[in-house]
Amino acid sequence: MSREEESPAGLFRLLLGARAALNVFRTTLQVAREQAMGMDRRPELLALWLPCQRYLDGLLDALPSHLSGPVRLLRQEVEDGLLDNLPSLPALADALDALDQACESLLTDLVWRADGVDPNRCPTRNRRSDEAGF
Predict the structure, then answer these.
(1) CATH code assigned at 60
(2) Do the beta carbons of residue 56 and residue 18 sit within 8 Å?
(3) How many CB atoms lie within 10 A of CB 109?
(4) What DSSP line would sit under 72-116, residue for residue?
(5) Exposure string (b/e) for 60-70, b if CB count within 10 Å is 16 or more?
(6) Considering its fold, how many domains does the chain have in total?
(7) C-beta separation of 102 from 71 below 8 A
(8) Which residues contact residue 3 at a Cβ distance below 8 angstroms, ignoring those fewer than 6 apart?
(9) Domain of 52, in residue numbers
(10) Tens digit of each residue's pLDDT (9 = 90 or more) over 26-48
(11) 115 burial class (0-12, 13-18, 19+ CB within 10 angstroms)?
């Protein structure tokens, strides 16, 4: 991992990239759910998951372990769901939403820190980030 990725700006780019890739994946998953997807769409979903994996790999490498744990677990939940014999699209969507919320909380914390605000002392802190352990 480069020093640039470890910087706040590098983390910011990784988080934005991860969220963008997750949104593309979510949109495809939503279409698949609406069309009562069969197993024939799994290769497409796996291919669309690759950019998410790349961004999440970089993010997990750059984050300290106390922040990367929830993201790592949620990512594994999505990947396990993709590899199930009969993927549950609602379960995948729920895991994907939780993963996106974890990334959103990290992004919010990063912005607060850049502004000199300690996210742990901020009274308007998002409840979801508290529940996720951030």
Answers:
(1) 1.20.120
(2) yes
(3) 22
(4) HHHHHHHHHHHHSSS--HHHHHHHHHHHHHHHHHHHHHHHHHHTT
(5) bebbeeebbeb
(6) 1
(7) yes
(8) none
(9) 3-131
(10) 998 888 777 766 556 778 888 99
(11) exposed
Report residue 25 as tokens.
Answer: 């994946």
Q: What is the pTM of this model?
A: 0.78
Of 17-31, 70-84, 106-120, where does mean pLDDT reach its minimum?
106-120
Q: What is the dihedral of CA 106, 27, 21, 40, to 10 degrees?
A: 130
Output the six-digit token pair for 83. Answer: 């590899």
Q: Do residues 28 and 45 make contact, with C-beta atoms less than 8 angstroms apart? A: yes
Comparing CA positions, the residue from 47, 51, 70 lying closest to residue 60 is: 70
Q: Is 15 helix (H, G, I), strand (E, B) or coil?
A: helix
